[in-house]
Every structure is written in C-alpha cells, then in structure tokens.
Design goal:
By secondary structure, the protein is mostly helical. It has four helices and two strands. The protein is globular, with a radius of gyration of 10 Å.
C-alpha cells in the first residue's frame, strides 16, 4: 500500500477532535470523501487512541 499523503490526511481529518480512536478517524475520513487506499490504511493502523494527526500519519507510515 502507498502511504497516504500527509496533506491529504490533514484535509480529510480536519474536523477530528483529538484525541480520538481509529473508528472516529475512519468515520471522518469517509465523510470527507477518502479513497479506498486511505481508508484501508486507517483501517490497518492499531486500534488505539491517537493524540494528534502526527501520530496518525506516523501509524499510517508503518503499514506495509
């Protein structure tokens, strides 16, 4: 999988109130029109609470 572009993630997750969990990230990304690849990455990150967008971006970067 290609890692989502950090600026695209920022746009998709602009309404997220951090900290939040993976399910909320997926809900927000879906609501903002995320593509299947981005949703796949968000679905593959650990089911955890993320303190900020940098943590989400980092987790997405660890998916192979």
């Amino acid at each position: 999988m290609t890692t989502p572009d950090p600026e695209r993630l920022r746009a998709l997750l602009s309404d997220v109130d951090f900290p939040c969990d993976r399910a909320e990230l997926i809900r927000q990304a879906t609501a903002h029109g995320a593509d299947d690849s981005t949703l796949g990455h968000l679905g593959a990150i650990p089911d955890s609470t993320y303190p900020d967008l940098d943590a989400v971006t980092s987790a997405c970067g660890e998916i192979t």
